[in-house]
From TrEMBL:
Residues 5-66 form the TonB-dependent receptor plug domain. One of its GO terms (cellular component) is cell outer membrane. Its main location: membrane. It comes from Tepidimonas fonticaldi. It is found in: Cell outer membrane. PANTHER family: OUTER MEMBRANE PROTEIN C (PTHR30069:SF49), TONB-DEPENDENT OUTER MEMBRANE RECEPTOR (PTHR30069). InterPro entries: Beta-barrel_TonB_sf, Plug_dom, Plug_dom_sf, TonB-dep_rcpt-like, TonB_rcpt_CS. This is TonB-dependent copper receptor.
Length: 241
């Protein structure tokens, strides 16, 4: 807490300081160690302040006012039970970018199209999609973890027999190392080898009933959606002159 609270320009002995209703005074004659300096902010439930003349219940003989801090009431386990309490925290510190530089990049895209005459959806419209990348740079290394998410494509062009596709999410990773004027880069797309279908990939007409008459029931009539690439490992090298 504050070592020297001030109310309307008045401080020190002109204020009354209380903790849980008890008046506490500085332990040092020159008033350097005020009572509130020993109180952990995490142990404060609330602080009440009276500016100027305070009520008698708050010790109203102070000229400047009263600062009353209250700590939470202690908790006890019920009879026959064990009381438990935990706390989880994370602490990180870097001196001179010892862990490199971290960053976050994001991209959100949404497009809506419709034929105003027929009310039909337009062809090859990509649904809501987003990309979020966590980047890290340390020395000659440059790495990133990228999440790609695409919503299900349900708004399709009926007149073109466009195929609906489900939503999906992919995880891509890459790392690059700079070698003077060159850069060697290694990456893995679709790290978990998820099966997904391209919203704007058209239709695979080799499967379905495109060449069958009459059309069998429960068989895709206009082909099936084209699946996207599975897990892909790639390596590139770039050289500038």
């Amino acid at each position: 807490m504050s070592r020297l609270p001030v109310i309307r320009g008045l401080a020190d002995e002109r204020l009354r300081l209380q903790i849980d209703g008890m008046d506490l005074y500085a332990a040092c004659p020159n008033h350097m160690n005020t009572p509130l300096s020993y109180l952990d902010p995490g142990q404060v439930e609330r602080v009440r302040v009276w500016a100027g003349i305070a009520p008698v219940s708050a010790g109203g003989d102070a000229i400047g006012g009263v600062v009353a801090a209250e700590t939470p009431a202690p908790t006890f386990a019920a009879p026959g039970q064990t009381g438990t309490r935990g706390e989880v925290g994370v602490s990180a510190r870097s001196n001179g970018h010892a862990w490199g530089q971290w960053g976050v990049r994001g991209q959100l895209s949404y497009l809506k199209g419709r034929n105003r005459s027929t009310g039909d959806g337009l062809y090859q419209i990509l649904p809501l999609n987003a990309r979020v990348s966590l980047t890290h740079r340390a020395g000659a290394w440059d790495s990133a973890v990228e999440l790609v998410a695409v919503r299900a494509k349900t708004d399709v062009s009926q007149v073109r027999n466009e195929v609906r596709t489900p939503g999906f999410a992919l995880l891509n990773v890459r790392t690059a190392y700079r070698l003077g004027r060159g850069k060697l880069e290694l990456g893995i797309d679709n790290l978990f080898d998820r099966l997904y279908y391209l919203p704007t990939g058209g239709a695979y007409v080799g499967q379905g009933t495109t060449m069958t008459n009459p059309t069998p029931p429960n068989v895709p009539q206009w082909g099936t959606a084209v699946p996207g690439p599975g897990r892909t490992v790639w390596v590139t090298y770039q050289q500038t002159f």
